């Protein structure tokens, strides 16, 4: 642990608490990320980028586990606000798109990208995956999830290109969502030497306490 903030507990509900001393944040961590972390630590991964980090929940989680974390998003205001008081070492925040990753070739041991890569049209997703591949070291890990065509929101809204909809998901009405099946994901990852693709269902609640479930693919690909 090289972080200056303290995790009270990461327990079954996958919640990360940061003590009141630094400003209280209560963030839930994806169980997939917790599980993937076993593989990453086993292979001595150190340098990780969290692409589309949002509020920074996974950046903070990886940082607390000793990773050297590069957090990025097209809008970094949330993670900047959440980490302002923490004075963390080994956390670099930089605003950019996943379609243009401003780091050298073979730079990262891990690229993490949760609930983000499908927020684009297919050409941008392909460009993002090329950028991930370029910036990953050989034999390093791309850990991400991707919306499935089996998700209940598939088909809602306006289809702007095949399997890409605007207006399909509550709270994200103006953002494109691309839905993939397993074959498409395999094709997108064809440069990678290996890809473990698992189907998952996650439940979550909106601000009005309505429950939703999300059908996604959880993927660990190796360059
Ligand atoms: C649903 S949030 C997920 C945030 C975080 N990864 C998590 O799991 O909590 C999607 C995030 O992707 C970001 N985003 C959308 N398009 C992006 C792009 N082209 N490049 C980088 N980030 C993007 C959004 O700003 C938003 O913060």
TrEMBL record:
Its EC number is 2.1.1.222, 2.1.1.64. InterPro entries: Methyltransf_11, SAM-dependent_MTases_sf. One of its GO terms (molecular function) is 2-polyprenyl-6-hydroxyphenol methylase activity. Pfam families: Methyltransf_11. This is Class I SAM-dependent methyltransferase. GO terms for biological process: methylation. Keywords: Methyltransferase, Transferase. It is an enzyme of class 2 (transferase). Coiled coil: none annotated. Residues 50-144 form the Methyltransferase type domain.
